[in-house]
Design goal:
about 130 residues, elongated, 2 domains, 30s ribosomal protein s13, domain 2, Helicase, Ruva Protein, domain 3, mainly alpha, about 5% strand, 2 strands
């Protein structure tokens, strides 16, 4: 297995797909890395077909030009912490564990809110007269 930015890249996959294993590298960034490293071909080569020189070029480009893995995770965490500390609306939503971008929460939002918790006194009472 090849190691790039502290991540093991699987040998049997195409290079552009394998680079997506790195946190912060998606398909577009992977294509950009391969273009800069002069690795081309209509069917992209698999990782095991790359020479040591090509792998070194990929490593150098990722380390020099892109923020990935630990540094990126730290940066995202610091941005969220900053929002929470200044008391912005987005920071409050982060603190409460609710959706940030205007989605409805009356229904849906279960991923963000977690499993349903039963609340006493909610719902319909049987036998109650108006």
């Amino acid at each position: 297995m090849v190691r790039v930015s502290g991540v093991d890249i699987p040998d049997g996959k195409r290079v552009d797909v394998a680079l997506c294993r790195i946190y912060g590298v998606g398909s577009t960034v992977a294509q950009d890395i391969l273009r800069r490293a002069d690795i081309d071909g209509d069917p992209k080569p698999k990782v095991m077909e790359l020479s040591d020189e090509q792998i070194d070029r990929i490593r150098e480009i990722v380390d020099r030009d892109f923020v990935v893995e630990g540094d990126l995770r730290r940066e995202v965490t610091m941005n969220i912490r900053r929002l929470i500390e200044i008391g912005s609306f987005r920071g409050l939503r982060h603190r409460r564990g609710l959706p940030l971008r205007g989605q409805r929460t009356r229904t849906n939002a279960r991923t963000r809110k977690g499993p349903r918790r039963t609340v006493a006194g909610r719902g319909r009472r049987t036998g109650a007269k108006k």
